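Entry 14: structure prediction run for Transcriptional regulator, LacI family. Input pasted below.
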Amino acid sequence: MATLLDIANLAGVSKSTVSRALREDPTLDIGGETRKKIFEIAEKLDYKVKKEKLLTERPVFVIVHKDTHFINQIDNAYYFSARTGIEEICYQKNIQFSFIPIGFLESFTKPVDGALLLGNFTKKQVDFICDRLKTDNIVCLSKMNYYPDKIDWITYNISDCVTMAMKHLYDLGHREVAYFGGYDEEDTTESYSKLYYFKKFINEHSDVKCLGIMEGEHGSESGFQMMQSWFGQEKPIPPAIFVSNDPIAIGISHVLNERGITIPSTTSMISINGDSPGKIAYPPLTTIDIHTYEMGKEAIISLEDRLLFKRNFTKKIEVQATLICRSSVAVKIK
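Run finished. Output tokens:
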């Protein structure tokens, strides 16, 4: 088993320098090349930082996300909100943390005490992340968890969200609804698909008619293009639209506004997420709030709990969604 002295001898530095470097001691004054060399040697020797020491030191967490998640705030308000919650708890608890795009993980060599998987990755991507980071303390904030017996899970109930949205439309008299949504990840099963629960609601309510289904990417530009395609196919204006997320809904509202189709007097629209840009959409968007800020906070709390108490079981925390009634849904006038 490798020791600090082994790393020190190979790196040409003292044992204490190696110890402080691997612990990310902010007061350690060494060059970038030396620091990199120490981490590379430690990884090559498969050196593991002793867990018992971590209890009295600042833990190091890494948050892995998709490469595009922090580029566009309108399309990724979900992730910006979760990030705010993550950062707040890390600062409160004096936790060292880094946000790493999955595309950069191949070159990431620093030892970590825990990892948070932020977003919906494929099973292959989750396996890659776990293999690279080599930590038993892992939490995912996502709609699916491929390893519920190994990874803590912060999530929301997709069935509840879709049902809540559709019931709101139904209770206001809407019986004709179109579906606009983003593609599911390739490994997504029916039980984690919003389209599945939309169809289930339609099947359970014989008086409700589905006017059509449009699927595309998850952003506002995709919503814009899907709505344009709807009209390009000379389909009628849907009296009500269910949308799988807020960014797509914002893109749809742009097309409707451009065409002079008033929301909600002509078309009512409801979506899922509770993103902040929905407040300033025109009109403000009625949505199902899944409380991403709170989920971000809960993810770090769970990760710290795993590290400190060495639990021999995993946790699933499901946040209860809330209907936010704004101005994009109205009573259906017969």
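Notes: Residues 51-56 have pLDDT under 50 and may be disordered. Will compare against the previous run tomorrow.
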